[in-house]
Amino acid sequence: MNETLKTRALTAYVIVANVAGNLMLSHGMRVVGTLSAFEPASYLHAFANPFVIAGVCVLASWMVGNLGLLSRADLSYVLPVTSSSYVLIALLGHFVLGEAISAGRWAGILTIAAGVMVVGGTAPRTTPEPPPELHHGAYQ
Amino acid sequence: MKWILVAIIALCNTLGDVCNTAGMKRWGELHEFSPAAIGRMVLAILRNPLVLAGLAAMAVAFGALLKLFSIANVSFAVPATAASYLLETLLAKYILKEHVGWQRWAGAAMVALGVALLSL
């Protein structure tokens, strides 16, 4: 696999893990109810919910994937491109959960998608490549 | 309270992203996506002060986000985080020394506008 393709594959993983983790966590927190900063027990109670646990695990894998991606690509590339998670969440809400999408939200979805395509057309990395000995995983 | 949480989320996420990017670039590059290479990366992160600082900032943002989810609609947090796209692009250019051309600026501005529009 060439290097740009590897970066794109990792980018896709980061986007999907972000969407899946946030949907699980948001669903779990809605079941758990309001948290109070002055009641640490309410946070412990939240972590007894399976959706919260699964969401936290998926978001942990998102975090590791995102750090791996930031080792390969620019922040000014990663940030706009991974914002397609907003588009995915809105489309999932519409087509899976049947949520209505207003004209303003459709405009937002299309504007983000266009921004993702504009940045997606640039080379992912513009800072100097690390020396070969810092290509972790390449020579083991 | 809502806006204080939104400000904490935006600032801590920005700080976290910049520290994480600087720390990961200093470490090198995840070249193969094998479990062994990813495992070694995770161990290296635990000894990387910049990334640890970045993760601490993100943990603060995450705690504030959990709190915000429980007292406000998810869509409430969205418009305020839009501005952080431009702030982070600016820091990427001047602190991380990335080559931010017109496509990156245009894309970041479109994403920020789009994210703000999402709340309508």
Describe the 3D structure:
By secondary structure, chain A is mainly α. Helix content of chain A is 70%, strand content 1%. Chain B has 120 residues and is mainly alpha-helical. Chain B is built from five helices and one strand; from the N terminus they run αβαααα. In chain B, helix 4 packs antiparallel against helix 5. At the A-B interface, helix 1, helix 3, helix 4, helix 6 and strand 1 of A face helix 1, strand 1, helix 2, helix 3 and helix 4 of B. Strand 1 of chain A pairs parallel with strand 1 of chain B, so a sheet runs across the interface.
The number of helical runs of chain B is 5
Overall form of chain A: flat
**Biggest beta sheet attributes of chain A:** none
Q: What is the overall number of helices of chain A?
A: 6
Helix content of chain B: over 70%
**Which assembly state applies to the chains in this document?**
heterodimer
> Using only CA atoms, what is the Rg of chain A?
18 Å
The main sheet of chain B comes to:
none
- What is the chain-wise order of helices and strands of chain A? HHHHHHE
- Residue-averaged pLDDT of chain B, rounded? 91
The stretches of 5 or more residues of chain B where confidence is low (pLDDT under 50) are: none
Question: Gyration radius of chain B, to the nearest Å?
Answer: 16 Å
- Report the count of strand segments of chain B: 1
The SS-based structural class of chain B is: mainly alpha
Structure summary, number of beta strands of chain A: 1
- Taken as a percent bin, the fraction of beta residues of chain B is under 5%
Order of helices and strands of chain B: HEHHHH
